[in-house]
Design brief:
Blueprint (H helix, E strand, L loop, with lengths): L4 E10 L4 E3 H5 L6 H8 L3 E3 L7 H16 L8 E5 L10 H9 L5 E5 L5 H14 L6 E8 L9 H4 L4 E11 L4 E9 L7 E3 L10 H5 L5 E3 L1 H22 L9 E4 L4 H11 L10 H4 L6 H9 L8 E8 L3 E8 L3
Parallel strand pairs: 4-5, 4-6, 11-12
Antiparallel strand pairs: 1-7, 2-3, 6-7, 8-13, 9-10, 12-13
Helix pairs in contact: 3-4, 8-9
The protein binds oxa(dethia)-CoA (UT7).
Oxa(dethia)-CoA binds next to helix 2, helix 6, helix 8 and strand 12.
């Protein structure tokens, strides 16, 4: 029997129109364009309007994806919604998105793996396709990071932005799609990157709000050290395991946390900078949104059979890499 692989057959993205530049941030905190650009590679990021949630961005992205692929929302079997900023703690944003786009035949769930969420979701969705039972799986990655960012904390507010992308997975019999995945977690890393309050240990209270504990807390340097090693190691490991040389890799699609981490990963893989997708300069770190937004922006340059390495590192810690053959 021919092996079924899960191929990406459509991709789309959405970012809100409002732009927050480094100059704008200079008015909010003690920072400057030079520091942000040289330390992170970020110039500007997008901010979603008050009153809208991550599912509103996902709605725009998914609606466009369905049009591009020429299918109805009712044909979708499963929605995997990767986010750390769901519209609400519950119900899952996957349910809300299904309702908004009219995916009345789908089931769905949210997947929480911070910045590695989208690649965890891609592997998850891929296994549903491989089972032969599910034919159309929508994997969404997006975050309204501005909803959990403290715009008086210069350590974090310069880094993150809002955005959402999504891909459609369908069965492929030519060997294109997800070929291999190496995914990891280490909960020991939770101390260095987290949101202190709003969960079951520390529900929201006047005290938690006063202590500004509903925002991202990050010990940047420590996370940086783990991220740079984790992302580079796992990217090299997946190349080795699949006998891929740098020449075989058409594109590196890295999570966009810091341009220096991206450069270190590309160097370790021996992949030339011209083959590295980068959108951190104009979107910042959109957490679950970075990788699908890159695929969306680069879609016209991708060719059938291209070898892509997707790599990410995030809170948890979570990290991993996926080897994917582009299918169209
Ligand atoms: O996506 C999920 C995973 N996250 C990551 O991978 C993020 C990993 N970490 C990083 O990317 C970097 O650590 C940051 C970009 C967050 C910070 O860069 P850094 O080079 O590690 O800076 P630092 O935290 O060591 O701070 C260096 C200095 C400090 O001043 P002193 O103590 O040397 O006087 C900071 O207070 O820079 C200061 N600083 C700033 N200065 C101007 C911190 N933030 C700012 C700022 N503007 N926005």
């Amino acid at each position: 029997m021919t092996k079924i692989t899960a191929a990406i057959t459509a991709v789309n993205g959405y970012v809100p129109p409002k732009i927050l530049t480094n100059k704008d941030l200079e008015k909010l905190v003690d920072t400057n364009d030079e520091w942000i650009t040289s330390r992170t590679g970020i110039k500007e990021r997008r901010i979603l309007a008050d009153g809208l949630g991550t599912s509103d961005m996902a709605f725009e992205a998914a609606k466009g994806l369905l049009e591009k692929r020429g299918i109805l929302a009712t044909e979708i079997d499963l929605i995997v919604f990767c986010t750390v900023t769901p519209d609400m703690v519950f119900p899952a944003s996957a349910c809300i998105l299904a309702d908004k786009i009219g995916a009345t035949n789908a089931f769905g769930f949210d997947l929480s793996a911070a910045c590695s969420g989208f690649i965890f979701g891609l592997e998850t969705g891929s296994r549903f396709i491989q089972s032969g039972v599910y034919k159309k799986v929508l994997v969404v990655g997006g975050d309204k990071m501005s909803s959990i960012i403290d715009y008086s904390d210069r350590n974090t507010c310069v880094i993150f932005g809002d955005g959402c992308g999504c891909v459609l997975l369908e069965p492929n019999l030519e060997g294109n799609g997800v070929v291999d995945a190496i995914l990891k977690v280490d909960g020991g890393g939770r101390h260095f990157l987290h949101q202190k309050a709003g969960g079951s240990i520390k529900p929201a209270s006047h005290e938690t709000v006063d202590a500004r504990e509903h925002f991202v807390y990050q010990e940047g340097q420590t996370v940086y050290k783990f991220a740079v090693k984790g992302m580079a190691d796992v990217s090299a490991e997946i190349m080795e395991r699949n006998n891929l040389t740098a020449d075989d890799v058409a594109w590196l699609v890295p999570h966009q946390a810091n341009l220096r981490i991206i450069d270190a990963t590309a160097n370790r893989m021996g992949v030339d900078k011209s083959k590295v997708m980068i959108n951190i300069d104009h979107f910042g770190n959109t957490t679950n949104g970075t990788i699908p937004l890159l695929l969306w922006e680069w879609e016209s340059q991708l060719k059938k059979g291209d070898n892509l390495i997707l790599a990410a590192f995030g809170g948890g810690f979570t990290w991993g890499a996926i080897y994917l053959k582009w299918a169209y």
